[in-house]
Design goal:
The chain is mainly α. It contains four helices and no strands. It has helices at about 5-20, 25-35, 40-45, 55-84.
Length: about 80
């Protein structure tokens, strides 16, 4: 594995760790947007099904972060194998 691969995984990992820790604040922001700007929330909001249940929304958000990281690593591995 080359260093670019490891650096890219590290950068994405740090970004996702920051989002993991900030999940509560992100939830509050989405809940406030739903209440104050429902049209914008319909357009840009995600995990709308769980917005009324804070714990479930955060759990779903964090599981999506793990999925994103796994998919990112798989794609990088595939590109590394293809490139040789």
């Amino acid at each position: 594995m080359n260093t670019h691969f490891l650096i890219m995984i590290l950068i994405v990992g740090v970004l996702l760790a920051i989002l993991w820790v900030s999940a509560g604040r992100i939830y509050r922001s989405h809940a406030a947007t739903k209440n104050s700007h429902p049209f914008l929330f319909k357009l840009f909001g995600f995990n709308e099904r769980y917005i009324d249940d804070r714990e479930r929304w955060i759990r779903t958000f964090r599981s999506q972060l793990v999925l994103i990281l796994c998919l990112y690593v798989v794609v990088l591995l595939a590109l590394t194998i293809i490139r040789g």
